[in-house]
Amino acid sequence: MMQSWSQRALMVTGKGGVGKTSLSAALARALAEQGHRVLVAEVGSDADEPSPLIRALGGKRPRDSGVRPVLPNLEAVRLMPYAGQQAFLRDTLRVKLLVDAALRLAAIRRFLSAAPAFNELGVLYQLFQLMRERRPDGHPRFERVIVDTPATGHALAIAQLPDIVLRLIPGGPIGTVTREGLAILRDPAQTASIVVTLPEALPITESIELIEGFRQNKTPVVEVWVNRMPLNPFEGRPEAERAALALAATQAPPFWGAQTLQRLARAQDALGALRAQTSLPIRVFPEKLLEDPALSAALSKDVAKSDDDRAVPPSKTN
User: Which in 24, 27, 65, 157 has the greatest CB count within 10 A?
Assistant: First the structure.
């Protein structure tokens, strides 16, 4: 599976609470373990707030928006609007002291936070700046970049950002930077998105809407990942066993396990609905009773499996 992706940047997105951060960390770990120089990034607004991504990787809490190593071949960063805006103004005005003095003014910072699209522009500029960094030998500092994007609405806002900015500011340095970013975001050879969802009706519906929104904005989507699929105790066993147990559940008082079977049936129905509504490749990740570093480490092994290893028939979990 890892070899089938040639894109340098992978954006992991989806509805809040579906496990984007754990799977972003798992994907970054899997690539790093294969020897790639990896940057994994999350979007934040406050340097003092806890970092779910760093916690998922077992690293220390970040103190700022700088890049820091967390594992061999793997570095992490928090993309912050203010840091990107500051970098853009420094690069554009070429007068560092003037920019820093202006950004210390509360009124200027409030304006940048409130102005339409300026927060997203700051995030994207910081990301593109990191992607442009080179090592002394001329090769990219980071071979692969994984971005744990905000929840669905913010992800679409970022996808729509270049068009909005170019309509408002078609020329000048902002227009130039936006066009450069647009070329990266919409080039399927460089960037793709992974949509993460759960095997439940509402998250599946929202994921289909998100995929359509990306399509309308010409943002490539490479796969859909279904997270936390319930264990199927009947996998590899005669279907008659499950049918007999399901019949018994309707004829007897409630018993331990009946709700588990119902949950499995709903999850399989939701997975079937997803398969019917998209032609994108779908990967299914089993539910794991683990947290943070242990969870991302376990999931990284699932992420690294080949397509054949991960193939899941529509009527079964993995």
Answer: 24
